[in-house]
Amino acid sequence: MSVSTSVSATGTAAGSEQQLAEFDRTTSRWGRATMLAGLAISMAGPLYLIFFTGLDISAGQLWTAFAAVAAVFAIIWIVEPVTYFPILGPAAMYQAFMIGNISSKLLPSALVAQNRIGAQPGTRRGDFAAVAAICGAAAIHLLSLTVFVGILGTWLISMIPPQIIDVARLYILPSVMGAVIVQSILTIKQPRITLIAVAMAVLVQFVLLPLAPGIAFLTTGIAVIATIAVSWLARDRKAATAAAAK
Amino acid sequence: MPLTLSRAVSAAGDSTDVLAAANLPVLWICAAGVFAVIIVQSVIYMKAARKAAPAAGITSAEIGISFRSGAVAAIGPSLAVVMVAIALLAVFGTPAVLVRIGLIGSAAYETGAASIAAGTAGAELGGPSYTQNIFAIAFFAMSMGGAMWMLATLLLTPLMKRGGTKLAKVNPVAMAIVPGAALLGAFMALGIAEVPKSMVHVYALATSAAVMGLCAFVGRNPKHTWLREWGLGFAIVAGLVVAFMAHTAAAPAA
């Protein structure tokens, strides 16, 4: 590319720097822009339903619902991006939090790709392999969602008698939560916190709620805060100091 | 004063024909819009990666290999998500399931958020009190939850890029306790709240938990690791089947 060989070495190094800087600029600018667009379009659906279809919903109801959800999940909203950043790198962050299913699908895909071409995670080579792998995973995922859920699933639901749909709808929540509880116990692997969470949930549901039925919609939030507080107070201080000393 | 554009929705939204509201064409268009945004993003990223590939010490061919191996590795997990999504179609309708369960969120967070939101309006997700109004409130709360996730990503990513990962190092002891406690507290409370509803709810909860546990246990064997990603789908379907049998046994007319 350059005129003389001596210039070529430094010239390419500077060129590489520039190319990488351009990649960072492109991915962070467009990553942010596309994520904002995704955010706006995903809000457009419910807002249309609320404002343009004649449903009777007050602003107060919406904010109450959001506040109750925030009381439960606000900590996770902050913690998840912080946890995944070192693994994903800045470019892939804007992909991952829009495509979803990060730990069960995107991370394994990235690892398989890095493994396949012998790239280390955390290096530039590894980051690029991860970005390409996530694009590949997204392509497959969109395709299977379109075909199997969008087309086949919708058809399937229209074929099933309404009585069966009604029963399925009635029991979907316990059918999801049973599995999710087991999944979170196995992923988090902290028996002490698990026991505290069970105790807090039982206390809130069977002691606090009968005493103050008006707090029904706050129970999950209260259980979350109580579990965090008690887990913190009852933490294994010896193990913690040992880990800190390391 | 709301401008009524559709007749699929009952006058005051107190109809329980949730799917009529949940499958409105505009919602399909919004779901397609999110798909389109992800496609555009992937195309931009792939182009940028190919262009800067030599500078990152990776060849253009290796970028292609990475794309393909990422795609192949995602087939199993994607189909597992499909199974979960189909099970939830009856509650949320196709467009909301595609965006919330299939993409941005996950079955656990979204059904959790929807249940909490329905509770604030004095209704039960999927129960007799689950009207079009309640669906809209739940859909709004789920979407706001997802929006907060993306907002946190948008705000924190540039910060962490600049300051390294200092944020996670603030207090390693707190980071080891708070996230786990928040998740376990949330899902434990959401699960136990199902117990007093009826015995059929208890059967569904227990069946789902047992099937998930079994899949995780058998999935420890390196030959059956696929069971770990399919566990959630199998557990939900098993929970529904048992609930259906118990429900019809209790009330044959239903």
TrEMBL record, chain A:
It comes from the Bacteria. The chain crosses the membrane at residues 33-55, 62-79, 128-156, 168-186, 193-209, 215-234. Keywords: Membrane, Transmembrane, Transmembrane helix. This is Uncharacterized protein. It comes from Arthrobacter mobilis.
Automatic annotation (TrEMBL), chain B:
Keywords: Membrane, Transmembrane, Transmembrane helix. The chain crosses the membrane at residues 26-46, 67-92, 134-160, 172-193, 199-218, 230-250. Pfam families: DUF5058 (PF16481). This is DUF5058 family protein. The lineage of its organism: Bacteria, Bacillati, Actinomycetota, Actinomycetes, Micrococcales.
